[in-house]
Amino acid sequence: MRKIVTTYINPDMDGISLMYAYTELLRKKREKADYYFEGTMKKEAEIVLNKFNIKLNTATRIENEDKIVLVDTNYLTEIPKAIEKENIVEIIDHHNKDSWLNDRNDIKIQIELIGAAATLVAERFKNENIKISRESAILLYYGIISNTMNLKIKLTSQKDIEMANWLKQQTPEITDEITTQIFVEKSQIGDSLREEMEVEFKDQFMSISWSMGQLEVANVDEFLNKYEQDIRNVLKTVSEEKNVEYISVNCMDIINGYSVIVAGNEKTAEIISNTIGLNFKDLKAKTNELVSRKEIVKVMRELYKNGG
Known about the structure:
Blueprint: E1 2-6, H1 13-28, E2 32-36, H2 43-51, E3 67-71, E4 88-93, E5 108-111, H3 118-127, H4 134-147, H5 158-170, H6 176-186, H7 193-197, E6 210-217, H8 220-242, E7 246-253, E8 258-263, H9 266-276, E9 284-286, H10 293-304
Parallel strand pairs: 1-2, 1-3, 3-4, 4-5, 6-7
Antiparallel strand pairs: 7-8, 8-9
């Protein structure tokens, strides 16, 4: 029996790192395993892979008899269509548990609402005393760094910090200088703006039609000077195509430690302002510290769940 470790379509750094590293861990435990993903990985993952000369060797397809391990997601709407949910045997994630799992006692589930799902796989290597490769150590480290904004957001747990430090000790190639280079390079978005914004899907846990994307860049003010109109064009297009009433993108400054929320319209600015107390000017609001999309969405979900 082969296990296929996979994640959501168009994965980011966390998803790529988990796929790669958990496949390695399974193989070192003498299980037959491969990894697979669909779509285009996010730019940051490409940068890290190129920076450290790490090559992916993915399975070409998912076969009917394969058993599926989902990482960094447990939402059926996000995964490759070739996956039959009856074949899912394990889930490792840090997002809210979807309702379809309530009746699936046959699936091994580890869901912890921490900064990065990569932390959970790093912890398994450490706790099970399984030697980790340089490639998996690097990828998991940057999975944690990416999802926690360099360990700065409030959702960063002590476990995230401990595992990032442990991974950094596994290879001298990980340095603060290289991390800064990756952040700066990631900010050069160009033609992939819509893809990087991640505003395509309505939030399934809210009673309102809501979507908030996120961009993680260096020097947000400079970035917005260059790309704000393009961002607004994407928000308008997605709002019309996907019929989303409230739409915005959270622009996080990884270097300087603050966020700027760009609202797609006045009612989105008003609802965010009323919920988390930010003042918008010209449909933009700046925070005093780094605030992640997850933190904002958590508050919104509490307020607007079940009719709100």
